[in-house]
Amino acid sequence: MAKAVGILGGTFDPVHNGHLRLGLEVLKEFDLDHVRLILSARPPHRGKPYASEEQRLKMLYAAVRNNCKFVVDDRELKREGLSYSVDTLKSLRQELSDTPLYLILGSDAFNHLSTWYQWQQLLKFSHIIVMQRPGQPIALGEDMKMWYQEHLGRAEHSALSAGKIWPVKLTQLNISATVIRADIIKGLRPTFLTPEPVVKLIEKLSLYQ
Ligand code: ATP
């Protein structure tokens, strides 16, 4: 069986060191081959991103250039309509056959998973890693509680390619795209919050002003 692949989706508006550090920590903890950064083109659960698809994609490429542990994946840009995770996982599963897949989600997103399109199908194609964000414990509604208990991952870690939920506690960097955008409006340069090539690209394209 091929080595496992992590999947980190986001609007990456812009990508920052919080995303990259999270990917790296999960990569080490789950012994992944690489982490795919999947750019969400038209996210169903939030407003329209500030930077265009093309600009956000350029920033992703600039962030991980020369790092083979991160792969930029633009498959959601090539699809019509809203970017549903279940469609993305289905297409990755077709492409990567029985490679174990690990969808990485923050506990904030996970707690509301039952509002996602075909949420129960997600585990058919992938495992889910739930990263517990500080101050945001896993707190599930009645519709998810049983499902969560039934799928909690235990010792069978490496044998399965999908179907389990793995809660993890990771040290999280206190960085968010929202704060970076707000800083740029104030004229502050996001040095050390995102890789330098991304900072330069933001300046060159005059983004978030
Ligand atoms: P915004 O501030 O615009 O909401 P964001 O910084 O949260 O953006 P997203 O593109 O929405 O970035 O995030 C993609 C994924 O990365 C989500 O699963 C989110 O939980 C996670 N994430 C965001 N910031 C961090 C961080 N500092 N540390 C770890 N994970 C993060």
Which short descriptors sum up this protein?
single chain, 209 residues, alpha/beta, Rossmann fold, 6-stranded parallel beta sheet, 8 helices, globular, binds adenosine-5'-triphosphate
Summarize the structure.
The protein contains 8 helices and 6 strands. It is an alpha/beta fold. Strand 1 (5-10), helix 1 (17-29) and strand 2 form a beta-alpha-beta unit.
Describe the structure.
With 209 residues, the chain is an alpha/beta fold. It has one domain (5-174): Rossmann fold (3-Layer(aba) Sandwich), CATH 3.40.50. Helix content is 35%, strand content 15%. It is built from 8 helices and 6 strands. The chain has helices at residues 17-29, 53-64, 85-96, 107-111, 122-125, 142-151, 177-185, 196-204, and strands at 5-10, 34-39, 70-73, 101-106, 127-131, 165-168. It has a 6-stranded parallel β-sheet, sandwiched between helices. α2 (53-64) packs antiparallel against α8. The longest helix is centred in the first third of the chain and has 13 residues, at 17-29. The chain is globular, with a radius of gyration of 17 Å. The relative contact order is 0.19. The mean pLDDT is 93. The structure holds adenosine-5'-triphosphate (ATP).
